[in-house]
Amino acid sequence: MKAERRHELKENDLVHALHDLRVYAATHGQRLLLTGGGIVVIILLVWFIIRSSSQATRRDWSRYTEIASMVETTGWSTGLSELMELAGKTDDSALAMRILGQCGQEGLRLAIEAKDDAEAKAFTDQAEQAFTLLRDEYGKTKALARGVAICGLATVAENRFALTGDASQKDVAKRYLEQVAND
Fold first, then answer.
1. How far is 138 from 78, CA to CA, in rounded Å?
2. Helix 93-113 crosses helix 117-138 at what angle (to 10 degrees)?
């Protein structure tokens, strides 16, 4: 008898709980539905943003690879401007730093291999632009990017001295190299 009574009491608790749930849902159902729908929308929105961001990063790396392989046939003079444009557009800081460092180094190399002083000056200016962007955009938070940029800017100053004979460029290069030593 006691077992049957316990079963009845448990059954009554279950019936009461279901009844209370039904009353709560009837009273607050619209609010529950809106809250649940809002949570689903937020989850979908976050998923979409993350997915589109990763797709953009893949697209930018793919474009970088495409330009880098293209310069083997067309030459770096056209590739530098395309890479600089990509560095300005991408949201991937690792890709942007890589591009800016590479553009600076290639600009310096092309300046050394230039046919005349005007071409050497143009490539030196492109290298300076790349290294300056690298220092200004990423040098505050990335020590390696800062070091690469400042060493590159010192080399730019040395190239300017070699091109123009302007002795003040030696002092500029010295200041950059002192920054690297003191950082």
1. 25
2. 160
